[in-house]
Write a structure and sequence with these properties.
Pathway: Siderophore biosynthesis. By secondary structure, this protein is α/β, with parallel strands linked by helices. It contains 17 helices and 27 strands. Among the domains are: 236 residues, Rossmann fold (3-Layer(aba) Sandwich), CATH 3.40.50.12780; 100 residues, ANL, C-terminal domain (GMP Synthetase, Chain A, domain 3, 2-Layer Sandwich), CATH 3.30.300. 51% of the residues are buried.
């Protein structure tokens, strides 16, 4: 057990009385990710762990590759607690990289394939990353050019490691050490294991420190709730570094259970359906827009999807009407999942009545997940009323990395995390998600912080002011609309969206629509009334869409 002096600076943690309670309850078992893989290699060695394209790795092979790569990272000079930004698509190498870093005690910073120079530059600079792991190309984008741009600006970034053609950098495959060297001082279970990214409402994402102990409890409990075992075959169709497909129960839950993970480079039915048929996939996870696409595509019945026992849907609320279509259309059970990378995860249970499954977003994992639903003054609302969701528990963080001012706003004095979600509780203790209180747009499961996009728009010489709001959309749930007060003659909307791309903003953050306006409506205290802007959108006809 670590002391305060041992902890990574800038990472708030649980008070010791809470930590002792979680250990006594058996939630925190003192296991690390490296130990998890080692044990599965012993007990499930010849079983297939990962399928990705033509690659099929057993648990023994994955364990050995992680050992060899950890030794290679160590030979480069990557040390325990060094930060390494990992930006890989759904390839097998994603797992050997993260398990190698876990085993070494270095800390992956999970980036998404859609991130570009703005986000990656910030992650590398803010964390003082020493290495950056990428694919050579994916989706028509050359990540090596991005790496050159970032490395030129971040002095700590010594190594760029590439899956595929390394170009001017180092090929990942050149790092394997055979036989692997013994690494001293393995990480402890209460150490930070990695950083995930928040879907925060202000600026670029905040970094979420997760420990081996707290995250593995969530993984184990999720695998049990979802009924995983050695026969489970999980299709990873969403980006592998997302919290949802990583741990709810996701790929790590499948490894815990000794099952098989199948990686899909794309989530389209054209890619996913043949994999389901070929590998006899039993479960997968999607965001609502993808679930709708899959259900439409399944009507053609070109592929055998009969092995699919369960579809998880999360990342945004699935409408009741769409939820009712899952079982008759795909022939499998639906499980609704509502959670956040900061911690709390809720599931509908496998034996729940169908009505509960299609109309709620589930109940918490743990008996020690504390949930409060409060009004604007932090007073408990009446049962069944909508309010702000607050939570704390054995796998919900107590603060973001190096974000003292933000933590003071996002956490109560007694450690409850202000999720920013508006929910109501059913008599059964299940949550129904009613919306977001934070200034954040949920575009098909991808979270867009309005303030971040506004700040980029304000850098354009023709923009005097900007306000980004959600535009209701029947397919994605929400799209983004930027209201712009021009400086002089308004530029074409395409000029502004091109400008944002040039600044390295991820594609999903580029506004779907741009509206020019002379002045913003204001609230009674002089703030921009985004509510009035959203209401104006519902009255206006579509214009200036990208």
């Amino acid at each position: 057990m670590s002391t305060a002096a041992d902890r990574l600076p800038g990472c708030p943690t649980w008070p010791e009385d809470f930590a002792a309670r979680y250990r006594a309850a058996g939630y925190w078992r003192g296991e690390t990710f490296g130990q998890l893989l080692r044990e599965r290699a012993r007990s499930h060695g010849p079983r297939t762990a990962v399928v990705a394209g033509n690659q099929r790795w057993t648990y023994q092979e994955l364990d050995e590759r992680a050992d060899r790569l950890a030794a290679g990272f160590h030979a480069l000079g990557i040390l325990p607690r060094d930060r390494v930004v990992v930006q890989l698509p759904n390839v097998a190498e994603f797992f050997e990289v993260i398990f190698a870093l876990f085993r070494l005690g270095a800390l992956p910073v999970f980036a998404l394939p859609a991130h570009r120079a703005s986000e990656i530059g910030y992650f590398c600079e803010f964390t003082e990353a020493v290495a950056y792991v990428i694919a050579d190309r994916f989706g028509g984008f050359d990540y090596r050019a991005l790496a050159q741009q970032v490395q030129a600006k971040v002095p700590t970034l010594k190594h760029v490691l590439v899956v595929g053609d390394p170009g001017p950098f180092t090929a990942l495959k050149a790092l394997y050490v055979t036989p692997p060297t013994e690494l001293s001082a393995p990480p402890r279970a209460d150490d930070v294991a990695f950083f995930q990214l928040s879907g925060g409402s202000t600026g670029v994402p905040k970094l979420i420190p997760r420990t081996h102990d707290d995250y593995l409890y969530s993984v184990r409990a999720s695998a049990e709730i979802c009924g995983l075992d050695e026969t489970s075959v999980y299709l990873c169709a969403l980006p592998a570094a997302h919290n949802f497909p990583l741990s709810s129960p996701g790929t790590l839950g499948v490894f815990h259970a000794g099952g098989t993970v199948v990686m899909a480079l794309h989530s389209s039915p054209d890619v996913a359906f043949p994999l389901i048929e070929r590998e006899r996939v039993t479960l997968t996870a999607l965001v609502p827009p993808l679930a709708m696409i899959w259900m439409d595509a399944a009507k053609a019945r070109r592929h055998d999807l009969s092995s699919l026992r369960m579809l998880q849907v999360g990342g945004a609320r699935l409408s009741d009407e769409a939820a009712r279509r899952v079982r008759p259309t795909l022939g499998c059970a639906l499980q609704q999942v509502f959670g956040m990378a900061e911690g709390l995860v809720n599931y509908t249970r496998l034996d729940d009545p169908e009505e509960l499954i299609v109309t709620t977003q589930g109940r918490p994992i743990s008996p020690d997940d504390e949930v409060r639903v409060v009004d604007d003054e932090d007073r408990e609302v009446a049962p069944g009323e909508t309010g702000h969701l607050l939570t704390r528990g054995p796998y919900t963080i107590r603060g973001y990395y190096k974000a003292e001012a933000h933590n003071a706003r996002s956490f109560t004095s007694d450690g409850f995390y202000r999720t920013g979600d508006l929910v109501r509780l059913t008599p059964e203790g299940y949550l129904v998600v009613e919306g977001r209180a934070k200034d954040q747009i949920n575009r098909g499961g991808e979270k867009v912080a309005a303030e971040e996009v506004e700040n980029h728009l304000l850098a354009h010489p023709s923009v005097h002011d900007a306000a980004v709001v959600a535009l209701p959309d029947p397919f994605l749930g929400e799209r983004t609309c930027a209201f712009v007060i021009p400086r002089g003659a308004p530029p074409a909307a395409t000029v502004l969206t091109a400008f944002l791309r040039e600044r390295g903003l991820a594609a999903f953050k580029i506004p779907d629509r741009v509206e020019f306006i002379d002045a913003f409506p204001q609230t009674g205290v002089g703030k921009v009334s985004k509510k009035a802007l959203r209401e104006a959108l519902t009255r206006a006809s579509p214009s200036n869409t990208r």
